[in-house]
Amino acid sequence: MDSPTPTSPYARVTVLGLGVLGAQIALQTAAHGVDVTAYDVDDDALRAGRERLERFAGAAARDLPDLADAYGAAPGRIRLTSDLADAVGAADLVVEAVPERLELKRDVWARVGAAAPPSAVLATNSSSLLPSAMADATGRPERFLALHFANRIWAQNTAEVMGHAGTDPAVADQVEVFAAAIGMEPIRLHREQPAYVLNSLLIPLLGAAAELLLKGVADVETIDRTWRTATGAPAGPFQVYDVVGLRTAHAIASADPASRAWADYLQENYLDRGRFGVESGEGFYTYR
Amino acid sequence: MDSPTPTSPYARVTVLGLGVLGAQIALQTAAHGVDVTAYDVDDDALRAGRERLERFAGAAARDLPDLADAYGAAPGRIRLTSDLADAVGAADLVVEAVPERLELKRDVWARVGAAAPPSAVLATNSSSLLPSAMADATGRPERFLALHFANRIWAQNTAEVMGHAGTDPAVADQVEVFAAAIGMEPIRLHREQPAYVLNSLLIPLLGAAAELLLKGVADVETIDRTWRTATGAPAGPFQVYDVVGLRTAHAIASADPASRAWADYLQENYLDRGRFGVESGEGFYTYR
Lengths: 288, 288
Fold this sequence. Notes:
Chain A has helices spanning 20-31, 43-63, 68-73, 84-88, 102-115, 169-181, 198-214, 220-231, 237-244, 246-254, 260-269, and strands at 12-16, 35-39, 78-81, 93-96, 121-124, 144-149, 158-163, 185-189. By secondary structure, the first copy, chain A, is α/β, with parallel strands linked by helices.
């Protein structure tokens, strides 16, 4: 952003679910001075969430030394609760990051819609489900949209803002300002698109790289080097696969019968050998 | 390349065709100290080729100031001829960059095969035709392969080395050394692949960007910004379109019925208005 960071239009933000993305969203929001409440289902989930918050705070502080103090203090500023009505009762914005099951999300949104202030804006971080599939469950579809973050939110800082057909554009405008206020680069979509903008671009590139490898045209290092040399990008497609995580890549490939051979290749050569990419220290490349 | 630049295994290189790519290949080779002969069909074609050599030498010198002297001197070191037998009679390597018509290329290769020393290696720069489609015409298929360069060869310095099934791997190894010797990053393909490695990766990415734009999901600037922010690449897909050239993009889209809408969009909004990308000063963006 060339313009100065705006002030968050929401004073109190609630994050639902302290998994990998939920914890990162809560952390990023709290590190930018916004009051954050985080919800998960029970004490065990909250304990695991607390550990994730501390771990991601450490990673963010290492990656962004200038903001080390803000990230370091953020976990202690997040209120944790396993009471959903309590979590959202005073929220200006609710960001949902619960597991990717439509019925679960619809159930959560119905309960949030009943308990959150009528003025609250509601946003799903779903990667694979469209907001139109759950908008009616919220009871306030015009104040509901998708706000999609990527893993390692503090570094990979796109925030895709995607309404469904019934979202009030003024609400989407406001959510864009919120995203910028917590250090994100807002990406505005003008209509629903499965996989948003980023993954709509990335998935075909990664698929083409997989095909070249499976066909034996060139090896991993050569394909990556070609991409880096020709485009000036810092990482080739297989380096991106390692960052995305090979379990995620396998899940995406498994969902499409056309990429069955690639799913099998990943399973046999990587998943079955505990090679999950950067997260496990080994994938197409070895880390540390 | 981390390793020092190797010496060219070929002392005398002949380039066939002084169009955009042929002129750049001749220039790049001469600028790296190799004797170059360039052939085109008649005096008019040679005059136009000479102008291209001077123009590209100026562009390369501006882009790579450290090599300005070498590029500046290169055009004067290239011998020009419209006699094909004379052009290839003493060649160690012949690189063909004549128009992309199979029968023309086969005819040229038959004449080259008859006139070049038996030891000479023969390489096509074809973007769209596979070497297996013309290997037999050369009379020495084991010494024939594809060596593919990209536009603005001095900056965009991939050289894809792709044999057909009958190419001697030792010949491909040697051509890789030649590519490195003239400042290229050699990319070795282990089997024939239409579009090589680079375009096999690039075309799906560019196609996905076109689809997002046509569907009205996001605008050109937003799509490009998403890609740059998320991947760290210096250019988004529409910036790449402008560099590739919108006439080339239109030709590729026109060849596939599935991308008809994109071909029409480019025609109406860009080609019909004289907007060809960077080369015309205007495309998706305005230049200069």
